C-alpha cells in the first residue's frame, strides 16, 4: 500500500498495510539550536542538531551548519545598526533552509559574545535595541537573548573543549559513555581582543583560591584560568601602532618594523585609537578620521624590541609566580594545545604541531625579513590584512609564551599548535568547539543530560 507521512513537532509516522493490518513506524526527528558568535572582528552563525528522543538519556549535539556574516563584527555597526540587517539576514535565510519549517518557532537563538563585546560594552541600550530588533522582530526563531561570556568562562570553555574532544573525560565502551580520569592538557587561546591560558596547576591545593572548581562526570577539577584583556592579536597590534605613532615625530610617514619591507598603508586614527585598549594613548590632537601613513621596514630585531613594550614585566619584580602585569599565576605543568590565533600564525610560518623553540625563532626571523612582494609568493592564502601582520603576531606570541608564560627551550615542545581539537571520533575547529560548549550549556537549561558527541562516531 501507499506510504503516508504525517509531520509532527518531534516525530514522524510512516504507515503501510501488512495484509489487512495497519503497521505504523514512529521515527523521532531532531531539535535544533542556533548560536551567533559575536567576536571582535566578525560574526558567525552556527546551527546545532540533536535527537528529539534521547537514547539512554543521552543526546548527541552536533554542528550541522556554519555561516560567516559578511562584514566586520557586530560592534562596528553601533553607529549604523541598520547596515547589519542585510548581511545577518543573508545568513539566517540560509539557516531557515537547514531547519524544517515546522520547527522554526521552537528553535532557540542565542548570541554568545566574547572579549570583543566585553571591551566595547555591547550590553549598552543601543546594542540591545539593535540586537532585539534584528533577531526578535524579523526572524521566525525564538530569540533567548545575548550572553556576554566572561573571561574566566571563555578560558574554562576552551579547556573543557580541548580535553573533552581529546577523550580525557569520557571513553566509549559498548556504545556507552563511561567517565574516565586522565591527565588533562592545558589550553592556550589567542583571540582578537583577549588571550586565555587554562590548566590544572602543579599543586592544585596550594593554589586553591586562584582556581575554579569544575565538576565533570563525577570528577572534580581545580582549573586555573586567566583571560588577558587587550592582549588579543588585534588589540595588541593596535597598541603597537599607537606606540609607534607616539615615538614618531610626524604622522606623515611612521616606520613600522613589524610590517614587511616596502609595505605602505594609511589608517585612520580611529582604527587604532578607537578601542578601550588604546584610549589612554590618544594624543591631545586626536582626530578620528585623520590618516596616519605607516611604512613597513621589515626589521625583526627592532620589531621584537617594540613588541616587548606591550608587556609590563617590571611589575612582577622578578617573582616566578607572576608572568607579567603584576598578575599571579601558578606554575604550569604538562602538555598544552594552542589554537585560534596561535595556530594561524604558525601556519603562516610553515610550522605546525610540535617543533622546537629554535625552529620557531629562525622561521620568525626569516619571515620578518621578507619584502611585501616576496610574501605574496610565500603564503598559501594571501590576504593583505593578515599577511601584513603575521610578523607582529609571531613576535607577540614569542613574548607572550616565553617571557609571559615562561615556556623555554625544554618545555616549548610540550605545546601542540593545531587548527582542530580532535581525536579519532571528534573533529572541531578550536573556536567552533568553544561555541559548541557554549550552546551545550544553554541547551541543558531546556533539555537534561545532553552530551556533546560526534553523530558519525558509531
From TrEMBL:
Molecular function in Gene Ontology: ATP binding; GDP phosphatase activity; ribonucleoside triphosphate phosphatase activity; UDP phosphatase activity
UniProt-listed Pfam families: GDA1_CD39
Signal sequence extent: none
Catalytic site positions: 154
Binding site for ATP: 192-196
GO biological process: nucleoside diphosphate catabolic process
GO cellular component, as recorded: plasma membrane
Keywords, comma-separated and alphabetical: ATP-binding, Hydrolase, Nucleotide-binding
Superkingdom per UniProt: Eukaryota
Family: Belongs to the GDA1/CD39 NTPase family.
Name of protein: Ectonucleoside triphosphate diphosphohydrolase 3
Organism expressing this protein natively: Cyanoderma ruficeps (rufous-capped babbler)
Amino acid at each position: 500500500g501507499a506510504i503516508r507521512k504525517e509531520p509532527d513537532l518531534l516525530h514522524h509516522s510512516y504507515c503501510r498495510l501488512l495484509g489487512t493490518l495497519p503497521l505504523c513506524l514512529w521515527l523521532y526527528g531532531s531539535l535544533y539550536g542556533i548560536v551567533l558568535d559575536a567576536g571582535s572582528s566578525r560574526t558567525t552563525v552556527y546551527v546545532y542538531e540533536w535527537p528529539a528522543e534521547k537514547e539512554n538519556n543521552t543526546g548527541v549535539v552536533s554542528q550541522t551548519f556554519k555561516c560567516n556574516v559578511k562584514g566586520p563584527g557586530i560592534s562596528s555597526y553601533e553607529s549604523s545598526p541598520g547596515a547589519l540587517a542585510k548581511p545577518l539576514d543573508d545568513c539566517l535565510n540560509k539557516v531557515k533552509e537547514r531547519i524544517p519549517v515546522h520547527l522554526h518557532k521552537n528553535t532557540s537563538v542565542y548570541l554568545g559574545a566574547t572579549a570583543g563585546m566585553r571591551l566595547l560594552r555591547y550590553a549598552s541600550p543601543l546594542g540591545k535595541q539593535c540586537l532585539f530588533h534584528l533577531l526578535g522582530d524579523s526572524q521566525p526563531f525564538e530569540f533567548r537573548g545575548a550572553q556576554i561570556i566572561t573571561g574566566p568562562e571563555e578560558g574554562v570553555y576552551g579547556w573543557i573543549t580541548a580535553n573533552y574532544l581529546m577523550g580525557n573525560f569520557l571513553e566509549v565502551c559498548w556504545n556507552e559513555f563511561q567517565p574516565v580520569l586522565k591527565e588533562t592538557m592545558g589550553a592556550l587561546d589567542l583571540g582578537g581582543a583577549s588571550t586565555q591560558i587554562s590548566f590544572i596547576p602543579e599543586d592544585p591545593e596550594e593554589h586553591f583560591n586562584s582556581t575554579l572548581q569544575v565538576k565533570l562526570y563525577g570528577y572534580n577539577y581545580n582549573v586555573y584560568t586567566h583571560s588577558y584583556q587587550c592582549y588579543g592579536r588585534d588589540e595588541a597590534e593596535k597598541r603597537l601602532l599607537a606606540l609607534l605613532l607616539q615615538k614618531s615625530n610626524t604622522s606623515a610617514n611612521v616606520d613600522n618594523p613589524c610590517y614587511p619591507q616596502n609595505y605602505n598603508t594609511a589608517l585612520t586614527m580611529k582604527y587604532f585609537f578607537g578601542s578601550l585598549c588604546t584610549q589612554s594613548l590618544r594624543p591631545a590632537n586626536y582626530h578620528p578620521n585623520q590618516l596616519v601613513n605607516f611604512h613597513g621596514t621589515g626589521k625583526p630585531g627592532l620589531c621584537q624590541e617594540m613588541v616587548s613594550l606591550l608587556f609590563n614585566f617590571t611589575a612582577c619584580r622578578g617573582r616566578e609566580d607572576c608572568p607579567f602585569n603584576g598578575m599571579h599565576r601558578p606554575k604550569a605543568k604538562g602538555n598544552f594545545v594552542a589554537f585560534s590565533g596561535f595556530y594561524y600564525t604558525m601556519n603562516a610560518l610553515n610550522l605546525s604541531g610540535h617543533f622546537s623553540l629554535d625552529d620557531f625563532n629562525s622561521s620568525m626571523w626569516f619571515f620578518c625579513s621578507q619584502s611585501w612582494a616576496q610574501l605574496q609568493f610565500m603564503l598559501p592564502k594571501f590576504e593583505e590584512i593578515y599577511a601584513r601582520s603575521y610578523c607582529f603576531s609571531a613576535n607577540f606570541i614569542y613574548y607572550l609564551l616565553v617571557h609571559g608564560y615562561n615556556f623555554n627551550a625544554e618545555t616549548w615542545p610540550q605545546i601542540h599548535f593545531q587548527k582542530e581539537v580532535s581525536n579519532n571520533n571528534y573533529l572541531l575547529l578550536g573556536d567552533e568547539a568553544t561555541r559548541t560548549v557554549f550552546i551545550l550549556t544553554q541547551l541543558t537549561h531546556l533539555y537534561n543530560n545532553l552530551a556533546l558527541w560526534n553523530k558519525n562516531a558509531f
